[in-house]
Structure to design on (436 residues):
């Protein structure tokens, strides 16, 4: 075991009671966060046909129109979370995004649907970073990669529910009824969270006097983030990884239906479970693997996601070039696992390298890369490229557009190898600052 790993895995205070309830309900709320995102991607084809949308407009709706407001509001929401009651903030955010998800059901044009997605993005900005900060105060550092892996499994669970429930509900009630149904479930999740989860004391499971620190201001927190080489490399690598994973997540359903001829009913039956299982294995498995390997070397926080992104590139190309939807979906399971392994290690690492008083804000800064570069850029870039290729008469332009994610995955892997060179030194510096 190297010295940096010994520092981060040192014995700490036993975690607080109520942590399991907190983990379960925060995961449930986070799941609804992803259901509300994924359902639009699943219903993209019937929405496109009824409202007459282009692929670029779909890319804006599934990506940038949501991600822009999500990213803009994410940092202010995290600053509030570092000062006020985080559980109530997350519950209020869930209530807000659920209401705007319901509003999507009444859209009659691209502009109206985009405005509703803006509202969903503003609401969801108050979800992830405060939730991670809450969990960091329920669980000590040595448990955080695995716990955050379980929490961020809300993404694949949301993909599964969004695809399966959304596809089923659209078949039963139309795509508008599907939006209303998931909105109602989100309202219930918000009420349960505020009733059953207690606000934990800040920093009580960390070294040093962090629990008594004043909430950090935004300017010094940004400077702190940029001063750590690990976090700068992580910003670059995670942003590109998110570009790949969100590009795949938001366009695979449309690719399978439009290019490979997969019926909407089969999307609900096969893609939903397959995507949910694969993304779940990737996110939770990535967290568990790093949790185990980091006891020996903190470079595991970089090597595990780096290797996984290298594997994403060729396996995605094979899946996209398959001759039919059955083969394509079967081959797609490998890149769908690999492309999400980066999530838990990145979020756990930023928690462990941040002071407790600024934990939500620092997490939100990393999520800027996830959302502006990843969620905002990935789906939009693929949509624009698909439209551009279609205008030139290319055959299966969406297939070609998805192939361009492969080289991006390779560059992301190179970024993680940069993280591996500096993570140990930064972890030792954080420990020295905490006990000084």
């Amino acid at each position: 075991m190297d010295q940096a790993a010994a520092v981060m895995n040192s014995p700490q205070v036993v975690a607080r009671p109520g942590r399991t309830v907190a983990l379960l309900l925060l995961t449930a709320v986070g799941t609804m966060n992803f259901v509300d995102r994924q359902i639009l991607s699943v219903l993209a084809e019937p929405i496109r046909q009824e409202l007459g949308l282009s692929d670029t407009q779909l890319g804006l709706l599934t990506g940038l129109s949501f991600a822009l407001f999500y990213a803009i509001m994410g940092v202010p929401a995290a600053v509030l979370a570092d000062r006020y009651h985080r559980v109530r903030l997350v519950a209020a955010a869930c209530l807000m995004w659920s209401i705007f998800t319901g509003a999507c059901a009444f859209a009659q044009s691209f502009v109206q649907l985009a405005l509703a997605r803006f509202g969903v993005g503003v609401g969801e900005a108050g979800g992830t970073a405060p939730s991670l900060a809450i969990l960091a105060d329920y669980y000590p550092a040595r448990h955080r990669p695995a716990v955050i892996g379980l929490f961020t499994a809300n993404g694949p669970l949301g993909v599964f529910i969004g695809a399966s429930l959304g596809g089923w509900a659209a078949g039963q009630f139309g795509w508008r009824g599907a939006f209303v149904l998931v909105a109602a479930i989100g309202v219930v999740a918000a009420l349960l969270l505020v009733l059953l989860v207690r606000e934990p004391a800040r920093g009580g499971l960390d070294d040093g006097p962090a629990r008594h620190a004043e909430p950090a201001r935004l300017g010094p927190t940004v400077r702190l983030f940029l001063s750590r080489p690990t976090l700068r490399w992580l910003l670059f690598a995670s942003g590109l990884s998110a570009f790949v994973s969100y590009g795949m997540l938001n366009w695979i359903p449309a690719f399978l239906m439009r290019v490979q001829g997969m019926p909407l009913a089969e999307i609900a039956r096969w893609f939903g479970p397959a995507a949910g299982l694969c993304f779940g294995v990737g996110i939770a498995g990535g967290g568990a693997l790093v949790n185990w390997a980091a006891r020996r070397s903190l470079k595991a926080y970089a090597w595990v996601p780096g290797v996984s992104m290298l594997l994403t590139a060729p396996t995605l190309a094979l899946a996209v070039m398959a001759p039919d939807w059955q083969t394509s979906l079967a081959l797609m399971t490998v890149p769908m696992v690999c492309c999400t392994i980066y999530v838990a290690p990145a979020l756990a690492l930023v928690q462990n390298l941040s002071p407790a008083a600024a934990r939500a804000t620092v997490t939100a800064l990393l999520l800027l890369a996830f959302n502006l570069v990843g969620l905002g850029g990935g789906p939009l870039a693929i949509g624009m490229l698909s439209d551009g290729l279609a205008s030139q008469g290319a055959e299966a332009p969406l297939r070609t557009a998805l192939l361009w994610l492969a080289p991006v995955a390779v560059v992301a892997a190179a970024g993680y190898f940069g993280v591996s060179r500096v993570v140990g030194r930064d972890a030792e510096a954080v420990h020295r600052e905490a006990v000084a």
